[in-house]
Amino acid sequence: MTKFNVPSKKEVSATNQAIFDNVQKSVGFVPNIFATMAYSENGLKNYLDFSNAKSSLKTKEKEVINLAVSEVNQCQYCLSAHTAIASMNGFSAEQIIELRTGVAPFDSKLDALAKLSRNITEKRGAVDASIIDEFFSAGWTKENLVDVINQIGEITITNYLHRTTEVPVDFPQAQALTSYA
Q: Which long-range contacts (CB under 8 A, 24 or more apart) does 48-53 make?
């Protein structure tokens, strides 16, 4: 397989160098997955525009989706990154593991969201009727459903990019689950 090295700032376009500077200021470093997107003249900007777009979902809710989807897609990079981000957003280590398996027994609304995210990903959009009914019964709206699907698309981009390129994970490694429920 072709080896993908993480491009340095000097190896990317001037446009992407400016984006690196902004990411460095906001995050404190340029994550390897973002740097890898900079192989494309437009890829990194397009991804960041998509990921920073307005949504009906709160940050914590997005992390529920990110963890459930990344576990289904078995993306070590995104599991590691979003384990750290979920922890910074108030989820406990135990809750993060539960979210990765597609459940949230600690919160009925988040549970419906986690189950839906996992089911959509596993079934490639052909969601089970009972799962979608549970989602709406938990108080979610059709607007939320559209935004959940957008979020699944966003995290799937980085899942697939990492699975394809296998660039090094630059976050504390998330441990593999012993049983994937």
A: 48/19, 48/23, 50/150, 50/154, 50/157, 51/154, 53/150
